[in-house]
Design goal:
17% helix; 2 helices
Length: 84
């Protein structure tokens, strides 16, 4: 986590939010850039830090829908590049 930066604006550090953990590992959650308000999902312990043009909107929206009760409102309802 100490080396991850936002791929859009290179902001550091990113905020981290957990929605599912296992033995102190984040299995599912999100990273959030407070500068550009973008979220990046963590799926199966892997942060998906892709620029907007390489992201899969359908998969990101499914991720948001599945985690809407576990992640903060700023990610679910306000984050870029899309939100619920």
């Amino acid at each position: 986590m100490d080396i991850l930066v936002c791929p859009i604006d290179k902001h550091f550090p990113l905020e981290i939010f957990e929605s599912k953990t296992k033995e102190d590992l984040i299995v599912e959650g999100a990273l959030y850039c407070s500068d550009c308000s973008r979220f990046y999902p963590i799926i199966e312990e892997i942060p998906i830090l892709l620029p907007d043009e390489l992201r899969d909107k359908k998969k990101d929206l499914i991720f948001l829908k599945n985690n809407q009760k576990k992640l903060p409102e700023k990610i679910i309802k306000q984050a870029s590049p899309w939100h619920l």
